[in-house]
Write a structure and sequence with these properties.
mainly beta, outer membrane lipoprotein receptor (LolB), chain A, eleven-stranded antiparallel beta sheet, two-stranded antiparallel sheet, 2 helices, 13 strands, disordered N terminus, disordered C terminus, binds 2-acetamido-2-deoxy-beta-D-glucopyranose, Hypp3068 protein, calcium ion binding, Ependymin
């Protein structure tokens, strides 16, 4: 959709133009992942899926699964998880970014899907976010920096994730509604008492510090 152009001034006074990959401001998709873990010589695979809405204008993310809803509000830096009528509110640890760092270099570019297919740019997660808990790859459609897939690895696990059936815009803004009750209405007081709780980190690269 868009490529931001950042101008970096070099010491010598010359300037170079760096293209930065920014995901679309508002989009939705079906989010399907598989986590393969290896322990004691055994492989276990668990699948996860959700409808995922990403709104960088209002700085909110929503994941709606079969029996849960998670809303991340990056204005309040709060995450609400609603499961079976219960709500857990935790403070988000890091702000969200819709652009990869300007220093991000495409590790490889691939033609996928034949002559009428798409060009995929693959980034090395370890290079663009060295402090992130996972190593792996982050792949986007070269045209528009639209998320394609991710591979996230730790010692003993490989998580593969695909962004399926992406549509642009937010069809129904109520996906970001946080029901109160059970969730707290005034989160400002709530935040202090929750500061010690680590926020779950989602395998979505734009939410990285
Ligand atoms: C996959 O499962 C392993 C083992 O439970 C866990 O440590 C890892 O964080 C999971 N990966 C993701 C991306 O959730
Ligand atoms: C993705 O879109 C196709 C074509 O519209 C549809 O048949 C399929 O069910 C959708 N898949 C998911 C997981 O939403």
């Amino acid at each position: 959709m868009m490529k931001l152009v950042a101008i970096a001034l070099l010491v010598g006074g010359c300037s170079v133009v760096v293209e930065t990959c920014c995901v679309p401001k508002q989009w939705e998709c079906f989010y399907g992942g598989q986590n393969a873990t290896f322990m004691d010589g055994k492989i276990d695979v668990s699948a996860t899926s959700a409808m995922h809405s990403f709104d960088f204008v209002s700085k909110k993310l929503a994941f709606i699964g079969q029996d849960y809803k998670i809303v991340q509000d990056y204005n309040k830096m709060m995450q609400y998880t609603i499961i079976q009528g219960h709500c857990t509110a935790v403070k988000l640890a890091a702000p969200i970014h819709d652009c990869l760092p300007a220093s991000a270099i495409v590790a490889s570019s691939l033609d996928m899907g034949g002559p009428d297919g798409v060009v995929i740019d693959v980034y090395d997660v370890g290079k663009i976010a060295p402090e992130y808990m996972y190593k792996g790859t982050y792949s986007v459609n070269h045209d528009g920096c639209i998320p394609f897939s991710e591979t996230l690895m730790t010692d003993g696990s490989i998580f593969t994730l695909a962004y399926i059936n992406i549509t642009s815009g937010i069809k129904d803004p109520s996906v970001f509604d946080v029901p109160s009750p059970p969730c707290p209405k005034d989160t400002d007081n709530f935040v202090n008492s929750l500061q010690d709780q680590p926020a779950p980190s989602w395998p979505i690269l734009p939410s990285l510090p």
